[in-house]
Amino acid sequence: MSEESINLSNSELERVTDKCFTNLKILSNIQPGNKLYYNEELKQFDIDQPGTLGFVTQAPSRWWYAQSRNTTIQNLENFSSTMMKTIDTIYHSEVSNSSNGIQNTYYSNITNPKIIFKEENSNLLLSYIKEISNAVRGLNNLKQTYVDDISTVSSLDIIIEKMSVRVKKISNILQINKSNKLNKTKKNQNDGFLDEDLPPYDSAV
Length: 205
What we know:
mainly alpha, two-stranded antiparallel ribbon, 5 helices, 2 strands
């Protein structure tokens, strides 16, 4: 199933991206035994840490936000979906500048990419790779908190897998982009500019 990109202005994209990075950094700080809840007002996750007598410090906050494990999983899934759509929007901003309605076929036609990404977009995608990878480690720690709950662990595994697949796709695209930059530099030294065709990409996870 493919994720659709979302239409955002530059300022909106910056705001959403900042919020994604904030949440990814929070997720990366989860330790074994910690529990997670979502602050609807701030639109971000928070971590409940065990108190001196087990999880006694968690009850008030988790009760206040009326959250259960299922709610936490749903919030993680919603965040993951929004984050991936945001990443797709960054990629599609390159698409719109170099093509006219070409469909994304990243895995079916990976041998023919020749796009050169804008530097700011490359750096942004690199940041996503780093932050998602760190967040995956935190989510793996969260699995240890719910080790006896097969349903919750399975749901976390699915979220982790989606994030890991997206990291691989971004890495592949940026590796191709790096190669294209080198090829373009060599080509320009000889006979001018290369055509910047759209690289195939599939946002499906």
